[in-house]
Amino acid sequence: MTTVFIDGLGLIGASLATFIKKNHPTTRIIANDLNPENLLYMKEQGVLDAASSFEDGAKNADIILLASPVAAICLRLKELADLSLKDNVLVSDVGSSKVQIEESAQALMAKGVAFLAGHPMAGSHLTGAKNVDTKRLVNHTYFLIQENSSQEQLSSFQNLLSAANFDFRLVDAASHDQIVAASSHLPHMVAFALASTVNKAREASAVDWGKPAAGFLDATRIAKADATMWTSVFLSNPQQILASLDDFEKEIGRLKQAIADQNADALFKDLTTAQAARRQMEKE
Amino acid sequence: MTTVFIDGLGLIGASLATFIKKNHPTTRIIANDLNPENLLYMKEQGVLDAASSFEDGAKNADIILLASPVAAICLRLKELADLSLKDNVLVSDVGSSKVQIEESAQALMAKGVAFLAGHPMAGSHLTGAKNVDTKRLVNHTYFLIQENSSQEQLSSFQNLLSAANFDFRLVDAASHDQIVAASSHLPHMVAFALASTVNKAREASAVDWGKPAAGFLDATRIAKADATMWTSVFLSNPQQILASLDDFEKEIGRLKQAIADQNADALFKDLTTAQAARRQMEKE
């Protein structure tokens, strides 16, 4: 019987647990979480078999899945290097920044423990086990960095999550961090900054603005995301995020110049290109 | 019998026409549009009574509603000043930048023609009469700048649109342009720039990124908006938009600094403030 230990039973950890239990009901799922509500809820759902301390859970697991914020995952990987784990244990994670996590796993891998770094692109501004919505999470891209794990371990891990029908993609840690800096970290950074800017303007205004426009609400929906998690994400991938922000500021700068110059042709060309790209990306 | 002439039967013009006809079925609605499909479709819907040239439509109307892009509205206001219109005609518009429109209406108002500037905050990235969805458009904020229109004309205009249950708010043109620069123009500008940045990074990458993340798609939905309309909007409210972009860049700059300094406290504080503001605005 396979035992999976999940450290962090928030939205992602609880979702993966649900997918595992769905296609592999005999798999024993043990978890640890700072918030007992997450543990109790998943127990009620019939997904969690038992709660345990990090140390006990890790020692008894065939698969250890680290699903806490990036900073915590890095600490856990170092703690795991000092524990006596099962032979053939596979350690994986769901952190959003892989270079820093890869570095934190060096001591563990040096001990010969197999590590398979991962990142399901299935986040939400919603948090906690209670918000698990497996329908919303199927078919997402799931990046995997094989590290020192075997083909067999890679295949069995993918099979464990078969219920989610993820689109697994093998990449290296550096490429992953570049991709998510632009595709995920930058949009979140921009949404937080946009929400702050508009809120300050509203508060400074003598006029009541009425209900916010639908466009603004859509553009900033992800600014409702968990601040603790995103602080950890932003600080764990600084170079790539700062580079993406530089690229973004160049785009803003070019649009500003076109407006300042009243250059309709340049502005229309940029907006048309952006619009076409956005419409195309939606189809992929 | 009241005759309403609408110049521009795109999404907004056609939506307002639909609301007018709903509660005021005997009102005669005449319209002009560059795209005959919009006219034919609204005729089929039983909303449009007749199509006409701009000149004929304007001359025979009790209410003239200008619903084309801002640049076109400004030209139409100047054309109207040279036409012999009905006595007691009321001219209104739906343009997204009011100071420039107010300036363009000076000659018309100097002739004693009543002008009531307006802006329903009910846009969409969808365009054209075929996308009219009155359910989606009800209860929105509708800014009105009274200009030289009478209380009676103001009331009858609001009554004409009673089916939409708009939240009408009287403001001055300058305040309006400040509000929409931050609440609408800035988010669109940011979405266009974000879509361009991410697309360029994807195209430059050696790795296939897979499906775009849901967060990115939400944050850039409004970048699918009509490029012609938004070029016109951005160029018609330059000072306020550039000021909003400066404020936004300061927010981005502070977040960048916190990341570069690995200042978790400052970053967490900013993200928490942005998150709380965004969640609060949604409730209003």
UniProtKB/TrEMBL annotation, chains A, B:
What keywords would UniProt list here? Answer: Coiled coil, Oxidoreductase
Q: Which domain of life is it from?
A: Bacteria
Q: In which pathway does it act?
A: Amino-acid biosynthesis
Q: Which residues form a coiled coil?
A: 245-284
Task: Identify the InterPro entries for this entry.
Answer: 6-PGluconate_DH-like_C_sf (IPR008927), NAD(P)-bd_dom_sf (IPR036291), PDH_C (IPR046825), PDH_N (IPR046826), Preph/Arog_dehydrog (IPR050812), Prephen_DH (IPR003099)
List each copy of the Prephenate/arogenate dehydrogenase domain by range: 1-284
Note the PROSITE patterns from the entry: PDH_ADH (PS51176)
Query: What does the similarity note say?
Result: Belongs to the prephenate/arogenate dehydrogenase family.
What name does the UniProt record give this protein? Prephenate dehydrogenase/arogenate dehydrogenase family protein
Species of provenance: Fructobacillus parabroussonetiae
